[in-house]
Amino acid sequence: MQQTEILLESGTNELEIVEFTVAGLKFGINVIKVKEIIQLQTMTKVPHAHPNVEGITELRGEVLPVVNTAKALGLGENPNSSADKLIVTEFNKQKVIFHVHGVTQIHRISWSLIEKPSRLYQGLESQITGVVKWNGEMILLPDFEKLIVEINPESGIHLNQIKKLGKRERSDKKIVIAEDSPLLRGLLHDTLQEAGFVNLEFFENGKDALEYLQTLCSSGGALKDEVQLVITDIEMPQMDGHHLTKRIKEHTALAVLPVLIFSSLITEDLKHKGRKVGADGQVSKPEIAELVSMIDQFIL
Q1: Where is the Response regulatory domain (predicted)?
Q2: What is the pLDDT of residue 242?
Q3: d(C-alpha 231, C-alpha 291), whole Å
Q4: Residue 38 pLDDT more than 90?
């Protein structure tokens, strides 16, 4: 499967997922992250590599790491590897291959059908960001960014990127942030506070963020006195970042708010989707210093 086209229009609150299996369980990955799916091939083990890295392999002249998805998710190996596949992905400006036990089909679904895992069963260290109920079965959506950060912490967001900007006073500026990953919410909280932004309001999805902003509008106060800017991820249960941006920009009162999209899916090929829904800026994770610089341009 070669993923070469943008399959969905901007702002529809839909996504397409590639369904794959690991240890008998069904999982899904956003089609936009998938470059291609290939047969299992020879890998070279690397001494002292992270336990979740199965090895490296060459693909079209590039040497890419192969992640043992079963191990990364804490699941068992496949006793019959004849159906195993390699999913070649690209996000966060890097290419990574995930070794899975099978690839089945593609589903087009609404983000509104994706539920956030309950804390009662996901645990504090869950690798799952969403659950899709599909034809009487469950499809789990792994937090691929977290899987990679655990293998290579340098690929995440770091405070030292912000410290280079120097001390700044931004405590009177309020920012609303929609981000579903607990890991990323924590990192964004710490780094933005280091940058001087201490008045932060976090939401786990675009739906909750939009309802909060709409409530502010109905309260009768001046919106710009309450919130100065919105930051949103793209992939979120209930309502994605593109649809959130579209709803904000189509709203008579909310349209004045600058909206910045901060996502692992920001590439030159996909930026047109953000522009189409009215995003004021787009930054690829984990470029937190670039995000802070862009914030400064909109709330001086």
Answers
A1: 174-300
A2: 93
A3: 9
A4: yes
